[in-house]
């Protein structure tokens, strides 16, 4: 069984199980009512998992003309990754002259993930050319476009992304007329957008007019430490306890929930389940916020585990894969799936990424590398760049103490902070989509 069918498919199954359990474990703390920003879920953990219920989402076209395109890999692709040979991206192109926006996915997100497609539709509907790019932490990008195959060091990720943008534009430029260029992203992709714009200020390839950042981290390392801790603190046994946690949740769901008209395990289902709970059921005990934090930690570990395996194999780090190990196309990978998902992101940084970076920059310390993967590293650029727009939430769960205040100080009136939404939970609400479109529609300085 090859890597995609064994690990990636198992990840999908686990995510399906995650959705199953939410309706009865009460991720579901806090009150639930529509806020001034048009978002109804006031608990940040519930918001992060549930997302935006349909009734509060932006009105978007069902279909737009999206092309899925491919760029050649910069590496020989191992046979085990036969299904991912070539970097894929998508383009939604206007028939008339328009600005072009590069849109970068969040941690582990593909160019065609649900959130990315919705953002693309909103911007295309507003009259922009839109190119969607997967996150450097998505395995298709990691395999085909990451110079190191070890993503997470933002300055190097930005170089990879900038090169891909140039190649993608070269592939489509004969079909479009571009008036100016912008860049945006959400979550980790928001930080990537800032670093790409900073790099381009020197390279002057696109001369980005605007940078839009949705729920960015300040320090990548502090944010992933928070996410790692959610798994460690809320799942008994940590990574080893994930299977038991999910199985117990599904068993309880089967015993406690009897649907009358069938079940659809999507954001609306979760929201209605949340909204039907009594105040006491929305507590923050072991069946409340504890459950939501566990789910968020699990989903992050599934993403980072895949990244660890791919990075180890492609970079020949030999962290979990023995030096003499080779993989055929249909190699069973159960052992490596378990081993990679046991690795925290902090371990990945300390044991894989930093040793690689030390070979490139031997004079720099671990603290230097961690600082360089932070908005503080490009603080002067972000202070002086007039057309940066930032949106986040006051209850953002991936920011360490003091980091929201830092962003308020750094961006001033260029940042919009909503009261509720957790991490990207309200990203595709009508209010947020309107804010994004208005930002790009305003004439550049």
Report on the structure:
With 445 residues, the chain is of the alpha/beta class. The chain has a domain at 57-222 and 369-441: Rossmann fold, CATH 3.40.50.1820. The protein has 16 helices and 8 strands. The protein has helices at residues 3-22, 44-50, 114-125, 139-144, 154-172, 188-203, 220-234, 242-256, 267-276, 289-315, 334-341, 345-360, 366-372, 379-384, 403-411, 430-441; strands at 66-71, 87-92, 98-104, 129-133, 178-186, 210-214, 388-393, 415-418. Strands 1-2-4-3-5-6-7-8 form an 8-stranded mixed beta sheet, with helices on both faces. Helix 2 crosses helix 10 (289-315), helix 5 packs across helix 6 (188-203) and helix 7 (220-234) packs across helix 10. The chain is globular, with a radius of gyration of 21 Å. Residues 1-35, 253-258 and 260-288 have low confidence and may be disordered.
SSE arrangement:
Layout: H1 3-22, H2 44-50, E1 66-71, E2 87-92, E3 98-104, H3 114-125, E4 129-133, H4 139-144, H5 154-172, E5 178-186, H6 188-203, E6 210-214, H7 220-234, H8 242-256, H9 267-276, H10 289-315, H11 334-341, H12 345-360, H13 366-372, H14 379-384, E7 388-393, H15 403-411, E8 415-418, H16 430-441
Parallel strand pairs: 3-4, 3-5, 5-6, 6-7, 7-8
Antiparallel strand pairs: 1-2, 2-4
Question: What structural keywords apply?
Answer:
single chain, 445 residues, alpha/beta, Rossmann fold, eight-stranded mixed β-sheet, 46% helix, 11% strand, globular
